[in-house]
Amino acid sequence: MLDCHNRNITYLRLSVTDRCSLRCRYCMPAEDVPGGDCLCSAEELVEIARAAAACGIRKVRLTGGEPLVRRDILDICRGIAAIPEVEELCLTTNGAALARLAKPLREAGVSRLNISLDTLRPERYAYMTRVGRLEDVFRGLEAAEEAGFTGTKLNVVLMKGFNDDEIPDFLDFSCRYPVEVRFIELMPIGEGRNAQFLPADAVLESHPFLRPLEGSGVARRYRSPGGRGTVGLIEPMSHRFCASCDRIRVTADGKLKPCLHSRQEISLRGLSGEALRLAIEAGIAAKPERHYMNETGRSEAGRRMNQIGG
Ligand code: SAM
Ligand code: SF4
């Protein structure tokens, strides 16, 4: 369905929880966050995805918080994968529980994975995530490959003074493994305001040998000569991609957010059938033309990333 700025909205990012097994410093505070009590049930989430599909959604990404902390995550996947109009069901995960869940997720109909990994150094990983173990993510990556996942992406949030010295190591990783390493610009949202921004152009400036490939969605894409994998740059701050934005988001408590960085929310809770479809259509139509983060230096989202679904 077209929004009022003539963009075709085909992509739903559906948050299934605001809870997480990790506490990344740029995303969540150290202490447990209140909430999580009014999460949509698996049935409600599938119903929302079905209604969104009737409005033209063709790709669904499950996110959070950490989607794999939900005990019924496989039911949610199976339910959404069975919706005929949904061509692609993706999932973004911190990878901590992937060693156990990669195969069941594949069998439940998940087509592709994004795995978040901001450092390749065990001590840094433990520091940044406060509780995580890097080896769990590596085991998860291996399990994903064994389960038959292809096109896996590694999300790396660039932070000056934290992982900028690892850009060569991540490029080397993209040469050795058939994954896309995606460098993502830090956004001034929630705890993200406490970390230091680094423009994604820093990757190109320090590595001019990267060869451009055709872009995909909001990513500029490259390959190192002879590399097995690819490199992507996601630049919400330096290169605003609002004009080609094709997505809407639904939070784990059932609020449709037409734009990540706007306060606008439309409650889908308690709606079903035609009423649910009309509410989603209204949300798509109301999608703002752009965000103003670049000018103001802050997001108007009104929630942290784990509460919206990153
Ligand atoms: N827990 C899962 C994970 O970490 O992949 C899914 C949810 S997480 C919020 C989704 C993505 O948002 C992650 O890749 C994370 O690094 C990214 N993220 C969180 N806070 C961010 C920020 N302030 N700026 C840019 N990306 C951010
Ligand atoms: Fe959890 Fe993902 Fe946020 Fe890290 S980035 S705290 S893994 S939701």
- Rg, nearest Å: 18 Å
Which small-molecule ligands are present, each listed once? S-adenosylmethionine, iron/sulfur cluster
The CATH homologous superfamily:
Aldolase class I
**Topology pattern, helix = H, strand = E:** EHEHEHEHHEHEHEEEEEEHHH
Instruction: Determine the mean pLDDT.
Output: 93
Instruction: Could you tell me the CATH topology label.
Output: TIM Barrel
**Tally of distinct domains:** 1
What this model shows, in words?
The chain is of the alpha/beta class. The protein has one domain: Aldolase class I (TIM Barrel). It contains ten helices and twelve strands. It has helices at 42-54, 73-81, 98-107, 122-129, 134-146, 167-176, 201-206, 273-285, 293-296, 305-308, and strands at 11-15, 59-63, 88-93, 112-116, 153-158, 180-185, 211-216, 219-223, 230-234, 247-250, 255-257, 266-267. It is globular. Residues 20, 26-27, 63-64, 66, 92-94, 116, 155, 157, 184, 186-187, 189, 192, 305-306, 310 line the site of S-adenosylmethionine (SAM).
